[in-house]
């Protein structure tokens, strides 16, 4: 579903992705972790072309990411993304936030878009919030809205970039629970997170990045139980 083949990226002189190779199969759940600044966000932003790589190949569902705008459009339609900051439109209701893209990008009739939005709001367990504004919701609820909003575009792949990092501790679980259910529904997911409980529970494989490189990739039991590199051992000792 996703293939990165020796991807390199620089920001000016800064080499932020170094020969990154990673393949993600359909329905696979991959968790990415690593120290701050190691290139995790840049890597997943390259997958939906929010950032451009300079060397190597990225292929998403058979579409290679090049400068061809048609390809970028096609990818954006297939890939949903959830960020650390929820990025909801504050002046629109929850329902309007959810129906905006289906109506304007997908040209879906309003009524149909609203039905779809309500289905996903129910899935993230906040249908009763539909007519409120983002500012009236808790952080955990807003992040669940952001997940529902991405799902309204019916993506084949969901990318998450530290979706719980900005949340108060008591709200982390309600967001992770939604992500666990999404994983169980068979969604292909790449999740940058330091929630190692989540990684153990749902990841098929865990990726460790450091200084722009993929250092280690392994199923969770092996990743946590038998880390091979010194850098991963050190990282795990700091976060667990
Ligand atoms: P992570 O998500 O693992 O914390 P990032 O992918 O955000 O790491 O950043 C990797 C490196 O690239 C860091 O050194 C960061 O400062 C740098 N970086 C990220 N975005 C930009 C940008 N838009 N311009 C310049 N440097 C950037
Ligand atoms: Mg990041």
UniProtKB/TrEMBL annotation:
<dbReference type="InterPro" id="IPR030679">
    <property type="entry name" value="ABC_ATPase_HisP-typ"/>
</dbReference>
<dbReference type="InterPro" id="IPR003439">
    <property type="entry name" value="ABC_transporter-like_ATP-bd"/>
</dbReference>
<dbReference type="GO" id="GO:0005524">
    <property type="term" value="F:ATP binding"/>
</dbReference>
<keyword id="KW-0067">ATP-binding</keyword>
<protein>
    <submittedName>
        <fullName>Amino acid ABC transporter ATP-binding protein</fullName>
    </submittedName>
</protein>
<keyword id="KW-0813">Transport</keyword>
<dbReference type="InterPro" id="IPR003593">
    <property type="entry name" value="AAA+_ATPase"/>
</dbReference>
<dbReference type="InterPro" id="IPR050086">
    <property type="entry name" value="MetN_ABC_transporter-like"/>
</dbReference>
<feature type="domain" description="ABC transporter">
    <location>
        <begin position="2"/>
        <end position="236"/>
    </location>
</feature>
<dbReference type="Pfam" id="PF00005">
    <property type="entry name" value="ABC_tran"/>
</dbReference>
<dbReference type="GO" id="GO:0016887">
    <property type="term" value="F:ATP hydrolysis activity"/>
</dbReference>
<dbReference type="InterPro" id="IPR017871">
    <property type="entry name" value="ABC_transporter-like_CS"/>
</dbReference>
<comment type="similarity">
    <text>Belongs to the ABC transporter superfamily.</text>
</comment>
<keyword id="KW-0547">Nucleotide-binding</keyword>
């Amino acid at each position: 579903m996703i293939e990165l083949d020796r991807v390199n990226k620089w920001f000016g002189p800064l080499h932020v992705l170094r020969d990154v190779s990673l393949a993600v199969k359909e329905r696979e759940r991959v968790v990415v972790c690593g120290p701050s600044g190691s290139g995790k966000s840049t890597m997943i932003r390259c997958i939906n072309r929010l950032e451009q790589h300079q060397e190597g190949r990225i292929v998403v569902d058979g579409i290679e990411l090049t400068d061809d705008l048609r390809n970028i459009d096609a990818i954006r339609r297939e890939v949903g993304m959830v960020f650390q900051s929820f990025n909801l439109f504050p002046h629109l209701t929850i329902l309007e936030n959810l129906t905006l893209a289906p109506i304007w990008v997908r040209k879906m009739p309003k009524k149909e878009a609203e039905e779809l939005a309500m289905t996903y709001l129910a899935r993230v367990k906040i249908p009763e919030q539909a007519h409120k504004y983002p500012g009236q919701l808790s952080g955990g609820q807003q992040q669940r809205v952001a997940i529902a909003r991405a799902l309204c575009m019916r993506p084949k792949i969901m990318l998450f970039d530290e979706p719980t990092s900005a949340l108060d501790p008591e709200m982390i679980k309600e967001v992770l629970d939604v992500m666990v259910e999404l994983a169980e529904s068979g969604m292909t997911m790449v999740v940058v997170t330091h929630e190692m409980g989540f990684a153990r529970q749902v990841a098929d494989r865990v990726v460790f990045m450091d200084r722009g490189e993929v250092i280690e990739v392994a199923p969770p039991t092996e990743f946590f139980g038998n880390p091979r590199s010194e850098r991963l051992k050190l990282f795990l000792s700091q976060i667990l």
